[in-house]
Amino acid sequence: MSEKSNNKLKKVDRPTSPHLTIYKPQITSVLSITHRITGVFMTVGAFVLAAWVIALGESYEMYNCVADILSSAVGRIFLLGWVFALFFHLCNGVRHLFWDAGYGFSIRAVNISGWLTILTSLFLTYLAISCASHQLGGYLWQN
Questions:
Q1: What is the dihedral of CA 46, 51, 54, 55, to 10 degrees?
Q2: d(CA 84, CA 120)
Q3: Contact call for residues 78 and 41 (beta carbons, < 8 A)
Q4: How many domains does the chain have?
């Protein structure tokens, strides 16, 4: 290698590419990441639901085992998270359908629809858990 090309290969003090530590999180990026995470969480929840259904058909003892796990504190937190993931994924999917139709691309509309997605999914989660708890006679939150 010649001296001239070796000089070109020397490290030049240039700024690095932008990274996550440089960017301020925006609602679009946070909701995009959350959408992916809730999709994975719903998949895990689908396997838990399948295990519950299999246990239901298998035997009374197996069903009680799964029901005991799901009615524990960790199980209830999991179910609460799963219900939230379902509603968040639904609301964010509706938001994306509007985008696919060409609506809501202004910065203001994106921010409003993002916060509306969060608030609606929280409200629907509260509503679903409250209705389920009421149907079970408050069982969801008893020890």
A1: -140
A2: 10
A3: no
A4: 1
Q: Is 19 helix (H, G, I), strand (E, B) or coil?
A: coil
Other CB atoms within 10 A of residue 112 CB: 13
Q: Is residue 97 part of a domain?
A: yes
pTM for the model:
0.80
What's the per-residue H, E or C state across 54-119?
A: HHHHHCHHHHHHHHHHHCCHHHHHHHHHHHHHHHHHHHHHHHHHHHHCCCCCCHHHHHHHHHHHHH
Q: How far apart are CA 58 and CA 138, in angstroms?
A: 28
pLDDT tens across 19-76, in order?
766 778 899 999 999 999 999 999 999 999 999 999 999 999 999 999 999 989 999 9
CA angle 106, 17, 37 (to 5 degrees): 55
Residue 115 is part of a domain; what is its CATH number?
Answer: 1.20.1300.10
